[in-house]
Specification:
Layout lengths: L5 E6 L7 H13 L2 E8 L2 H4 L6 H28 L4 E7 L3 H11 L4 E5 L5 H6 L3 H8 L4 E4 L9 E6 L11 H16 L2 E8 L1 H10 L2 H4 L5 H19 L7 E5 L2 H12 L3 E5 L13 H5 L6 E5 L7
Parallel strand pairs: 1-2, 1-4, 2-3, 4-5, 6-7, 6-9, 7-8, 9-10
Antiparallel strand pairs: 5-10
């Protein structure tokens, strides 16, 4: 079995079995691939302890790493009994993001699974969280697990974005749907497709570009809605999605996705990290806006990375 056939679970630094453990194991088993669990340890109290000498501090750190390694192995034994190939690793490091990216560069993984770490709005406003930094830097499909109602996902939602087709990454919406379909097939889950579009911002952009006078005609909003509808139908039809599973809803995308997932009991929403080239990608992506608000877990893929 090659490294590319492995799934990477980033375990929390504290020895706790979280929903991400069970989700990662379920997905690895459904996909028929191995699971590698790694914990990046860094406890501020041990790292900065000034009351002991360096040798004693090194012994304390190693004792904690050994204890964590033993704990991870205990979790792995249970998973192995279920027929899963599992390896474990514990690394003491003060820059977790850098070490994660090094792991992903040196080894090939089909997907990264991690618990979503909830932070207060004040903390998120003052500091860029590890999850957001990882979201921006990781090119591997990245699955943030929040409270998982079902270990094995039963409902998968693909969230597409058809706005500003002139600067879209070509074929990216098809890849998002393909990832959702593949995941649903592996998990025997139901698939829904959602396109949430903000008509007001689209209308403003079109007017600023001068499209109102020569492209969409006098009724810009109606023309925009019809054009988006045609594009959405073409996208879903060529991917073989049944009409009843396709949803095109007007409104703020972040709010629409949140409400839709809650109302339909979605387990995983598959989204693109960024959809547009140029300056548009620096404005702030929808996935960053919804990451801490979604009632479901999120699977993020990038335009550059191959679908797992």
């Amino acid at each position: 079995m090659s490294d590319s056939q492995r799934l990477l679970l980033i375990a929390p630094p504290l020895m706790q079995r979280t929903d991400a453990f069970d989700r990662a194991a379920a997905l690895a088993k459904a996909q028929g691939i191995a699971l590698h669990i790694v914990a990046f340890d860094y406890l501020e109290g041990l790292a900065t302890a000034g009351l002991v000498n360096e040798q004693a501090l090194a012994i304390m750190r190693q004792a904690y790493v050994d204890k964590h390694r033993d704990w991870l192995e205990t979790q792995a034994v249970t998973l192995r009994k279920g027929g899963l190939t599992v390896t474990t690793e514990v690394v003491w490091v003060d820059n977790v993001l850098e070490e994660i990216l090094i792991h992903l560069k040196e080894q090939s993984f089909a997907m990264v699974v991690k618990d979503l770490e909830h932070q207060s709005r004040l903390m998120r406003a003052m500091f860029t969280t590890l999850d957001v930094r990882l979201l921006r830097e990781c090119s591997v499909p990245l699955h943030f697990v929040d409270t998982a109602s079902h270990v094995m996902p039963r409902k998968v939602l693909a969230a597409v974005d058809l706005s500003r087709p002139e600067d879209q990454f070509q074929g990216f919406n098809d890849r998002i749907i393909n990832q959702a379909l593949k995941l649903a097939m592996q998990c025997k889950a139901q698939v829904e497709i959602l396109y949430a579009y903000d008509m007001s911002s689209m209308q403003t952009e079109a007017e600023n570009l001068g499209h109102k006078s020569f492209w969409f005609g006098p009724n810009l909003a109606e023309s925009l809605h019809e054009a988006q509808g045609v594009a959405f139908r073409e996208l879903t039809e060529r991917n073989g999605i049944a009409p009843q599973a396709c949803h095109m809803i007007m409104g703020d995308p972040a709010k629409v996705m949140t409400v839709f997932c809650e109302a339909h009991g979605i387990d995983i929403i598959v989204m693109g990290r960024i959809h547009h080239r140029g300056l548009a990608k620096y404005v702030g992506s929808t996935v960053e806006r919804v990451l801490y608000k979604m009632p479901s877990s999120v699977l993020v893929i990038t335009p550059q990375a191959p679908v797992a």
